[in-house]
Amino acid sequence: MAAPVAGPSQVPQQGQPYNPSSELKRRPDGDDSARRAKFPRPPLPPPHVLSTLVPDSPAFTELMKIEQKLDWTLLRKKAEINDALGKPIRVKRTLRVFVSNTTHDQPWQVEAKSQETGGDVSMETKPDVDLKAGKGIAGWVLRVDGRLLDSGNARLDKTRRKLSTFLRSAVVEFDNREAPTFPEGNVVEWHPQTLQPPLDGFEVLRRGDVNVNCRIILHVNHSPERFRVLPPLADMISVKEGTRAEVMAAVWKLVKVAGAQDKDDGSIISSDSLPFHQLPELVTRFLSHPEPIVIPYTIRVDKDFNFHTKCFDIPIEIEDPVKSKMATIVQNFEGDEGKEIAKLEDKVGELAYFARDLKQKRDFLESFAANPQVFIHNWLAAQARDLDQMLGYQIGSGPNGGSA
Asked: What Pfam family is a match, any one (predicted)?
């Protein structure tokens, strides 16, 4: 094919400077991602082509090598991070629970307040009594708080999960609070709601002026879910509690050690001719929810604030904070930074092909200026060959005489 002829839009008129940016501005605007999907940008010209286009291309070639090395490193790290994100990364932490209670409007509190006023219990010092709201009536408030102990790496562990996010349910059982004296009942339950925000603790308000024994039952929400293995399976695999995957791994180890797998058909357990795909269903029959955490506590009303002498540490497993950092890095690759890099790469490609177009125009005009007669003769012959080829004639024998 002959070299393209520079049209009016490509060759600047005499006396007018040629601005390469103006050529770029005439490109259609729009969404870059949609444009790349519809009209994908071809790869950059190879270095030996760029060296003929731009005299200073060795520096650009060196930058290209650095970019290739950097791209390879980033892609390898991204693949490693994606592989790590696909695997469960759990770390063991400790959830510490505190139990306390406060009292209000107890007889000894009212008496102490009257003594402060000189023993005159007037209407101004008597509390306002509201039976519906419980105001002015002796009572107490039980509070259960919890927090996740620091891991020692505050830089990674910035997110503070609240107590309620670790619980599947919470139950408080009171003793000696039977109706009709205490119509509220002796059992209080909490279950997570869909739109309920996370809580740092729970409060239970009740009326009463005597000490009350209670049991705080916490059902921990393990992730992944853990199960308690019931006998006799627990005795056979020596696993009392674990995840479903851990239990199945222990059962499979038992099958291999005992040689219970059929020698002819590996999908059958030879002891009872049990198909292997039915084994998970059989194991599920021996799984139950793990035992809850039970905290005994005595609610004392003989002082303003009563704190349990012990705190309770619950071992749990949570997602490694490093995993969230890795997910953020992957999102940055595909976020605004990645889009900006793609735009810069598109701009580099546009400039490279723009330089190639300018080189073609320059060679075209230089050849014409060197020998106009030979140039026009060769150009007409090339156009004639192209026309014969388009019309289906054999090159050199067509009516256009494209034989030169």
From this structure: SWIB
Within a domain: 254: yes
Position 402 in a domain: no
- Contact criterion met (CB below 8 Å) for 169 and 191: yes
Residue 127 domain boundaries:
90-222+292-319
The residue count for the chain = 404
What are the φ and ψ backbone dihedral angles of 395, each rounded to 5 degrees? -65, 125
Encoded amino acid at 199, one letter: L
Report the run of H or E that residue 157 belongs to, with start and end. Answer: none
Last residue of a domain, one of 267, 288, 309: 288
Each residue's pLDDT expressed in tens, for the chain with a length of 404 residues: 444 444 443 444 444 444 444 443 444 444 455 545 545 555 666 666 666 666 666 777 787 788 788 888 878 887 887 777 777 677 788 899 999 999 988 888 888 888 777 655 554 445 565 555 556 788 899 999 998 887 665 555 566 788 898 999 999 999 877 766 677 778 899 998 888 888 889 999 988 888 999 999 999 988 778 899 998 888 888 889 888 888 999 988 888 888 777 777 766 776 667 777 888 888 899 999 888 999 999 999 998 999 988 899 998 887 776 776 777 777 766 667 777 877 887 787 787 778 778 878 888 888 888 888 888 888 888 888 888 788 777 655 555 555 54
On the 0-12 / 13-18 / 19+ scale of CB atoms within 10 A, 100 is middle
pTM above 0.90, yes or no: no
What Cα–Cα distance (Å) separates residue 29 from each residue in 24, 35, 337, 344?
10, 9, 21, 16
Question: What SS3 state is found at 104?
Answer: strand
Q: Tokens 């059902």: give the residue.
A: 219
Q: Are 4 and 363 in contact (CB under 8 A)?
A: no
- State the Cα–Cα distance between residues 256 and 399, nearest whole angstrom: 85
Give the type of residue at 259: G
